[in-house]
Amino acid sequence: MDWWQSAACVDEDPELFFPVGAAGPAAQAQQAQAKEVCHRCPVIHQCLAYALDTGVTHGVWGGTDEEERRVLRRRERRQARGAPSPGPGAPPRGGQPSHSGRRRDGRSAAHAPSRRSDQRASR
């Protein structure tokens, strides 16, 4: 994990990347500031891959917030099961490292909960 030494956020206040809440104008402005730092970072793709691989759920990592990473994880699970991608309008992965299709617990993504149970859990 030597990539982090080249990260644009190394000299930033870490609290910038962990807003107290996700809602409200202050939190959204803070997330936008953190993402600005990410978008000029030379290791943005490694950072996002790390966050996805390790299941990071809080903060801004690799230019994404919690909800954006949740969407990426769902998309990866669907693709691992062979389901069609969401289609046009969905943001592309953009050259980020591919993931093995394995969940953090070591089981294959094919054993992940169904889309229906994902929808119930997000309500």
Overall pLDDT level: 77
Question: Ends: how far apart?
Answer: 35 Å
**Helicity, as a percent range:** 25-40%
Rg, alpha carbons: 15 Å
- Which strand-content bin applies to the residues? under 5%
Number of helices: 4
**Helix-strand pattern, N to C?**
HHHH
Give the helix/strand class: mainly alpha
Low-confidence stretches: 92-123
Largest sheet: none
Present the secondary structure layout.
Layout: H1 25-39, H2 44-54, H3 66-80, H4 115-121
Describe the model.
By secondary structure, this protein is mainly α. It contains four helices and no strands. The N and C termini lie far apart (35 Å).
Main traits of this protein?
single chain, 123 residues, mainly alpha
Short description:
With 123 residues, the protein is an all-alpha fold. Helix content is 39%, strand content 0%. 14% of the residues are buried.
